[in-house]
Amino acid sequence: MTLRFEEFYDWTKSELNLQLDGYKQKQLQRRITTIMKKSGANDLASYAEKIMADAQVKNDFLDYITINVTEFFRNKDIFTEFEHILTQELPQKFPNLKIWSAACSTGAEAYSVAIALKKKNLEKKSKIIGTDIDLTILQKAREGIYRDADIKNVDQTDLQRFFKAEEPFYHLNKDIKELVNFKQHDLILGKYENDFQVIICRNVTIYFNDEIKDNLYRKMSDALVPGGIFFIGATETIYNPAKYGLRKVGSFLYQKIE
Ligand SMILES: C[S@@+](CC[C@H](N)C(=O)[O-])C[C@H]1O[C@@H](n2cnc3c(N)ncnc32)[C@H](O)[C@@H]1O
């Protein structure tokens, strides 16, 4: 028996709780075909069987369809603009900051926030949550071990202060790691927490179709307190922010209307 992609997605939804029809299709189908062939399967039905029978094949599948590229202080200039709002403006408005790094991959983004807050002695007034759909990547995030490419935007002084170098790795210090709580969360199927002063959701909606994106922006806005900040990726735009109760306050920064 051969499966069409739509049927394979019904199967991933019921067996793996993974809603793949919400992703942009061309790119996703190309990736699924590549990883399927790597496993030795020639069609989606036998690939589904392999995924169920072999935990390694299942992990490889989940890892490959989620693209995990990230780095500390990604898009440095844009991050600096965000950092100013985070450490200068928001603390004047809110006594405590609840911050969510959504689709955080290996945690570089959540830890960049932790470093920025620590440098301004704001870490005790802050709670940072990092979430991703991918359990393997979350384990890496908790370990906090990085390579050159991940830390290229970290200043030398911060590198010495917050990391321990053990060539070719950089181990993030415990006092920064402790500031972030990582947990699994699916942006399409998961329930959203609320009362956030800051939500960062960068470089994941590019993989979602318009309907999923529309839902996501609505749910993100609901999860923010009035005056809270929503930080998106450098290739992303919210075309009609007012529709979601948001207004643009920076290059890739939106504020929930009060
Ligand atoms: C390219 S990384 C972005 C990492 C980080 N936000 C950044 O901009 O550097 C995209 C992440 O989105 C995650 N992801 C993909 N689909 C997801 C979903 N439905 N729910 C939550 N995370 C998802 C992937 O596992 C991956 O770690």
From TrEMBL:
<keyword id="KW-0808">Transferase</keyword>
<dbReference type="InterPro" id="IPR022641">
    <property type="entry name" value="CheR_N"/>
</dbReference>
<dbReference type="GO" id="GO:0032259">
    <property type="term" value="P:methylation"/>
</dbReference>
<feature type="domain" description="CheR-type methyltransferase">
    <location>
        <begin position="1"/>
        <end position="258"/>
    </location>
</feature>
<dbReference type="InterPro" id="IPR050903">
    <property type="entry name" value="Bact_Chemotaxis_MeTrfase"/>
</dbReference>
<dbReference type="InterPro" id="IPR000780">
    <property type="entry name" value="CheR_MeTrfase"/>
</dbReference>
<protein>
    <submittedName>
        <fullName>Protein-glutamate O-methyltransferase CheR</fullName>
    </submittedName>
</protein>
<dbReference type="InterPro" id="IPR029063">
    <property type="entry name" value="SAM-dependent_MTases_sf"/>
</dbReference>
<keyword id="KW-0489">Methyltransferase</keyword>
<keyword id="KW-0949">S-adenosyl-L-methionine</keyword>
<dbReference type="InterPro" id="IPR022642">
    <property type="entry name" value="CheR_C"/>
</dbReference>
<dbReference type="Pfam" id="PF03705">
    <property type="entry name" value="CheR_N"/>
</dbReference>
<dbReference type="GO" id="GO:0008757">
    <property type="term" value="F:S-adenosylmethionine-dependent methyltransferase activity"/>
</dbReference>
<dbReference type="Pfam" id="PF01739">
    <property type="entry name" value="CheR"/>
</dbReference>
